[in-house]
Amino acid sequence: MIQPITEQEKIIKPRRLDPEDTQHILAEIQERLYTYQLEKESLQKQDNNEIHNQENFYLTIEKHESELRSLVNDLHPADIAFILESLPKNDRQIIWALVSRIHNADILIEVQDWIRQSLIDAMNHQDLIAATGKMDTDELADLAPNLPPDIVAEVQKGLSKEEQAQLLAAMGYPEDSVGAIMDFEMVRVREDVTLEVVLRYLRRLHRLPDHTDQIFVVDRQDKLQGCLQVTKLLVSEPETDVSAVMNRDFLALNPLDFDADAAVAFERYDLVSAPVIDDQGRLIGRMTIASVVDVIQEDSQEQELSRAGLQEEDIFAPITMALKNRAPWLLFNICTAATASFIASQFENTVSQIVILAFLMSIVAGIGGNSGNQSMTMIIRALAMGRITGRSLWQLVKRELIVTSIVGLLGSFVAAIFAWSISKSVSVALVMMGAMICNMLVGASMGVLVPMLRARFGKDPAVGSSVLLTFATDSLGFFIFLGLATLFLI
User: d(Cα 232, Cα 226) in Å, to the nearest integer?
Assistant: First the structure.
């Protein structure tokens, strides 16, 4: 007998956003994996020739795997991807083997590039075919570089001619272009039909593509004529022609546009989706807000790493891989630090006569670096937003120098009081004040010029910028401070 649904059961319990939830689940999975490994090793040390011990071993393993499988597969694929990224390689492979096949496709799309290859390598031929067979052509294009060639060839056989052409086109665009991440799933209509016809057409579809806020109006050659907002479609009279209510003033992207530039346009014009057209004006795809969010997140992560001269890496990767990533800029940093030390050593006589200078010169270098970092952060952000041109370079340098001078006067006055309090010398305080202002101006100038010059020569303005800034503020800071001390105190 079917039990009737009670009023209490009808109450919807929405899922609330709690960033700590995933961390709690991660901690629980790690604890279960630790227990699982301990019991597995303990049972393996026993005499497995006895039937009882063998049964006990397999039952225990199955019990732990069942608990982990149930815990993991209740999560959203994006949360499973986060869990996999947060585990060492051996634990990651254990959890990946327990993930339900129905989640494989979504997880492979969600995980970071540096982990995706290891997950694909752990999958057998049938599982890979099953996972990739569920993907859209734009998703396949994103995964194609990580997939074995035979898998790509077999998946292509199951695609229609149109989908095959879309896949080849998406794979042919540069990695950081709109074409590489555009979506091919969209709704198109003609301008000479009524809204009632459009509504009937939409009702026949199994579902609308995600983030469908507008329908694209094309002619018989697929050239984009305008965009019909879904809100306009719903509130207008059904007898109205599409041509009467469609928007002819719209933003269209080119597949070769940089994805970062497209993300800026989405933010500036509050877009949810935008059409992508080729050089002949034909509609070939669209970009959605979901792709834009991914672009913004990836660019933000890359900038944070680039400023330290790093590339994205698996935090649990072998030490040799981490060394290749980190060693070059660290070695360069050693050279810059050695240069700063060499400059300081040339003033050995000054420091030996006024020992207090050895304690104060690190303050001068540190404040200069902090000042430069503030300017550099503002410039790198402005470059990313496309707000800087060649004509505004010197205006920006002038502005930063003025701001730094004002802040430097206030800060150096406080530093001078500190220098006087520990040295009881007005001369030392004045030298401290002058050196600090000069080095802050050096830091501000470098903070503007380093990213601007790197961008001018086609380099990432964020890569290694902090290392170059530290080199300038340390070396010149020591030189300015000890040079002034030599001139006025000796």
Answer: 13
